[in-house]
Amino acid sequence: MNKILTLILIFTFGLSYSQSEKEKGGIKNDSIFFGNCESGTERAIKDVGNKTYKSYSYGLIVRTKDEWNFSEFYEKYMKSKYGILIKDGGCLITAESKCYTKKMKELIFAEFGTDIFERTRKEAEKLYNKTE
């Protein structure tokens, strides 16, 4: 058990060190880089400039089979009608992903209105119920 803990600590320290070195001097190498808040914000602005809208959810998502089926329908609906990609961001949340998501949400709201997700969910539910 101690060997596993030691390996985890070494890995974590290595990632932290590589990120701090990147932030200090912008060193270009093959180390893993999770980004920072500034890079997340810049990436969101760039994506919207390319008409790419991504709405991420983070954490474990638990759904029933019916909820899963509707969720798949809703994702396709949002992509085809509004060009918004609904994505699962997984369980790893970084400074970059938090800032990307925050900025992207602001930009989506500016483009489609602050009620975009509530409104489109109702639209999709009506269509989904017709297909059953």
Order of helices and strands: HHEHEHH
Helix content class: 55-70%
Average pLDDT across residues? 82
Shape: flat
* Tally of DSSP helical segments: 5
| DSSP strand tally | 2
Main sheet record: 2 strands, parallel
| Beta strand % | 5-15%
What does this structure look like?
The protein has 132 residues and is mostly helical. The chain contains 5 helices and 2 strands; from the N terminus they run H-H-E-H-E-H-H. The chain has helices at 2-25, 37-49, 65-82, 95-112, 116-131, and strands at residues 53-57, 84-88. Strands 1-2 form a two-stranded parallel ribbon. Helix 3 links the parallel strand 1 and strand 2. The protein is flat. Residues 17-29 have low confidence and may be disordered.
Task: Draw up the topology in text.
Blueprint: H1 2-25, H2 37-49, E1 53-57, H3 65-82, E2 84-88, H4 95-112, H5 116-131
Parallel strand pairs: 1-2
In short:
The protein has 132 residues and is mainly alpha-helical. The protein is 67% helix and 8% strand.
Q: What descriptive keywords fit this protein?
A:
two-stranded parallel ribbon; 5 helices; 67% helix; mainly alpha; flat; 132 residues
